[in-house]
Fold:
Amino acid sequence: MALDTGQLCREIATLDEALTVCKEEVKENYKSYINPYFAMMLGLLGFDKSFVKAEGMEVWDSEGRVYLDFLGGYGALNLGHNPREILEAVKKVMTRPNILQTALNPMASVLAKNLAAMTPGDLQMTFFCNSGAEAVEGAIKLAKAATGKNRILYCEGSFHGKTVGALSVTGREKYKTPFGLLMNEVEGVPFGDAAALETALREHPAAALILEPIQGEGGIIVPPEGYLKQVRALCNQYDALLIIDEVQTGFGRTGRMFACEYEEIIPDLLCLAKSLGGGVMPIGATMAKEEVWKMAYGSMDKCLLHTSTFGGNTLAVAAGIAATEKIYRENLADQAEEKGEYFISRLRELQQRYSIIREVRGKGLMIGIEFLAGKGLMRKVSEEYLGALVAGELLNRYGMITAYTLNNPNVIRLEPPLIIQYEEIDRMIDALEEICKKHKNFLSLAMSGSKTILHSIINR
Structure:
């Protein structure tokens, strides 16, 4: 029942009150007003901390404990938490119009020019939006409008977002089935298999193929060397546009500014987001070659077919200008390559010593550790819970924030800020070694968790 004005004034909390809300009230608010089962899941795994401060690699909870963040906002925190330069950049533009639709935005024009200079080849035109999923939506629409074709190919195991179009080209049925028919004329092909892609392109004309140069939520899957070059050649041969999704891999994460640079390919469309906002502002971008953009939107009557109210707002693009400048100035891509090689080599040493680690893979500071699932009846359960249990041990016993990958929950991802120090990498290695020494298999890890977790797994 709606409240009258007087009651509403008494009921609505102020910002000052929100800043002091206690952990139990936060849980109750989530249960009543946001997502009760998400709150329950975090509670079962011991992830329901109340974090009150963050800077760089470190996050503090309400009890004063300090944690190291090896998750990095799924690749959104390449510069760490609350980087000073980005916050200062946002403050500098706070008195300018933030959203003014009937004028050209100077800040947006500069960031678009900068992106054209730093991205591969002749990518030139930029559409600004607010997230990676929106960047993918923009790319799909642009590809269809430019080519006059509807069919979109994607890779099995991929993740491109959870909006309707992005979800249609995401490669895990769990996230698609509950929503029935999504976008039609889409087809999945195996990731890393150029022959399968050629068959799909030969049989039916396609507007585009969308792929991640390294699959993130698929479990940090690196394709075979030369695969991206084959993909580029096949798209050229069969007149399909190539959309590269660098939302998670971009801006230095993999040891190159963009992961597609490892094979020196130039996509027709490029999707960006996450660390483009410096970990402070939400911002995404769809980039296109000029001739492709013109085929879709190159006239007065078409130029506003795809728009976004908040896309390219002053605060967000100012953060983007400062973030990309800092990544270049501090050579963070080179740092990610060097630190990643060290990190992966040390993890593979653990793999040689402990059979619970099945595989270590990745590039730069985008690393996945796949754990060995159980056998028999326990296999299916362990495939769903083993990564979460390891992440829970790391968080609650060692103060290390990680998470499993959505499409392969048997894998924990390590995507720390690119500013990480070597001693912090060593602390993670030491923590993982202790876990591996103590727990030889899934059941041992499940027994070490809370009784609530074990009860939940047994009665699943």
Observations:
- The chain is about 45% helix and 15% strand.
- The first helix runs from residue 5 to 11.
- The radius of gyration is 23 Å.
- The CA atoms of residues 57 and 218 lie 25 Å apart.
